[in-house]
Amino acid sequence: MFDAAVLSSSWLTGFTVCLSLIASIGAQNLYVLRQAVQGEHVRACVAWCVASDALLVALGVAGMARLLAGAPTLALWLRLGGALFLLAYGLLAWHRALFAADAGPRADGARVARGWLGVVGGLAVITLFNPHVYLDTVLLIGSIGARHEGALKWIFVLGAACASLTWFALLAWAGRRLQGLFARPRAWRMLDGLTGAMMLLLAWWVWQGT
Fold first, then answer.
1. Subcellular location, in the record's words (predicted)?
2. Which of 42, 109, 145, 202 is most enclosed, with most CB atoms within 10 A?
3. Cα 130 to Cα 21, 28, 57, 137, distances in angstroms
4. pLDDT means over runs of 10, the chain (210 residues)
């Protein structure tokens, strides 16, 4: 059995490591922020993000991190795929900013609402089809968690899940606070333009890391 100090140390390690990584600007964070501003199925988005983060960290702790670490060619292809994914996401955001007629609410304030399945499905694609996610969440966080002994590995995963819940709940709260600002279509175009620039910068950073 482990005493309370050891348990809390493993939990805190998982919390701080996960929070330090997911708090950076990324496609998933920007998607959740956008949904929070729109007020569309925000709880479902938060639930998906927390569940997927916990699952990916758990897979890394259970051994996938070791598998990726021992396959440098696979890691290289994941980095290349992540750079291309971020590049495509950034260009799509710029396309919305420059050409899309539905970048935000229409002049009469109306907008077409999406069902929760479509919203969460889009988030799932962004999460699971971004190769760079596996390097950050599975390889990096998972390899740190795998260093813990026995049941402490799963305390680490619990800490990571708590960090994910804290971050995405704060992101959802921030999005709701910004709803008044984004009542104008021009604000949406500015957000998409900024999103595109950030994604292209991240794509360049990931590419340089290969």
1. Cell membrane
2. 145
3. 15, 10, 15, 11
4. 79 92 81 90 95 94 78 79 84 82 47 78 89 83 87 93 96 90 80 83 76
